[in-house]
Amino acid sequence: MMQASTHLVRGNFGIEISKRRVFLCFGEVKQRCLTLNRNFCIRSGSTCSGSRSGDVSMGAGLVRAKNGIEIAVRPSVKTRSIKAQASGGDIEDLTPINPQAKSSGAVLPFVGVACLGAMLFGYHLGVVNGALEYLSKDLGIPENTVMQGWIVSTLLAGATVGSFTGGTLADKFGRTRTFQLDAIPLIIGAFFTATAQTVQTMIIGRFLAGIGIGISSAIVPLYISEISPTEIRGALGSINQLFICIGILAALVAGLPLAGNPLWWRTMFGVAIVPAILLAVGMAFSPESPRWLFQQGKIPEAEKAIRTLYGKERVAEVMYELRTAGQGSTEQEAGWFDLFSSRYWKVVSVGAALFLFQQLAGINAVVYYSTAVFRSAGIASDVAASALVGASNVFGSAIASSLMDRQGRKSLLMTSFSGMAASMLLLSLSFTWKVLAPYSGTLAVVGTVLYVLSFSLGAGPVPALLLPEIFASRIRAKAVALSLGTHWISNFVIGLYFLSVVNKFGISSVYLGFAGVCALAVLYIAGNVVETKGRSLEEIELALNPTT
């Protein structure tokens, strides 16, 4: 209900806020405080009208209020320019009373806490590489490659389970509570692996840690996308991949003392407990996703979270966008089978395909063979080879963060896969063309570094960022989980059969196949992926799911 003000307004006014048009049609009545998602002042002679958010619902597009006031609202992407036109025809600027938003830096601490999960993701993936030789001797399996393989691959099996579980937990308990639950297998898994006296205990610990990083892989990008302001969502979302790379590098650095202390591997696994505890504690002080709270009907809690994240000036604006997107509808949360319905399958298949292309493009193969490639170029140090690959990944991810909101997700994906295809072709030719034989070592190193750089610019960070953006709110958590499940399953299968394929066809042919996959990815992205740069999650949802 609108509350009367003391000012007198005469004549008809047309107010245009960019693409939102608000019409006030009345005769000589007392000015009413109108509900908009901006505070502004209309000056016409001595008349001043102030509006305040929060009193009138605009979700239906046309709201008829009492006293002859009619408001027609059409949503827009950006609302910046505000003008008023009096009945005499003069156009006047409407000066905002309050700024649109407080500094977007307010969300950074909460993004940083969430990214502890991403860092643990990278750390647990990388920690076994340097430690495997030493823990195998300590556990009595130095010659048992089968058991060593189980220690490595059990993490991926656990991650597959965790990625599917994460979506259900995030829908049921919320994002922050799921992070806290996620810390449990992360802490227990790290403890078991650090104190293991038998192979069985080590495998159990790796499986639990895998469940933890699987849950993290699903909810870190989900939470970041739902709390980030639209204008910097791409940059903040790509930080997820950056922290994964930092975690891998941290695992590499943690392995440096191994040569002088063979039992150091236990400390390497044990230190992962610290960030897991910090994640649980940090999430106790982090705001819940306003979108999840709104979907649960917890309106006061959603408004409180919005104030914490963006400032009180944007509460009405964000709440209006949530209502417009229909997140307060009576539809129940989607079940797993709903993801395969005609309503959602097209967009869900895009998410699964992006992660499938990411894995089939050969990133794990390049990293696996990087040591041998660098040795062929005269770089004998395994640590130096891994450091160069890791540094390239971190550097590319940092560049991607700065480009994500300027170049756009789709553009970076296509550029990334194109660069990966060219790099794979270079790697393949460096092993087969006799004319390139004198330069094969150098070309192989250049191809490897360019491939990793290209991957980190788009194929690495974009899928995890793009998926929460393109999925409708009622399927978002489960659809992200399903896509991440595709990632982990394909990762596991490729790791299982990769060496057999290389032995049968040769590394050059395999690299050529990867180049073909990258080229197919470019064509698929061009025809099926939408650009989400500069659009709120609600606007994207309305565009892709008009019936939701």
Protein model, in words:
There is one protein chain. With 548 residues, this protein is an alpha+beta fold. The chain has 19 helices and eleven strands. It has helices spanning 108-138, 145-173, 175-195, 199-227, 233-254, 264-270, 273-284, 290-295, 299-310, 315-324, 345-360, 363-376, 382-407, 409-432, 440-459, 462-470, 476-505, 507-528, 537-544; strands spanning 4-9, 13-17, 20-24, 29-32, 40-44, 47-50, 62-64, 70-72, 82-85, 91-93, 95-96. A four-stranded antiparallel beta sheet has the order 3-2-9-10, with no helix packed on it. Helix 12 (363-376) packs across helix 13 (382-407). The two termini are 28 Å apart. Mean pLDDT is 77; it is low at 1-103. It comes from Gossypium hirsutum (Upland cotton). Keywords: Membrane, Sugar transport, Transmembrane, Transmembrane helix, Transport. InterPro entries: MFS_dom (IPR020846), MFS_sugar_transport-like (IPR005828), MFS_Sugar_Transporters (IPR050360), MFS_trans_sf (IPR036259), Sugar/inositol_transpt (IPR003663), Sugar_transporter_CS (IPR005829). Belongs to the major facilitator superfamily. Sugar transporter (TC 2.A.1.1) family.
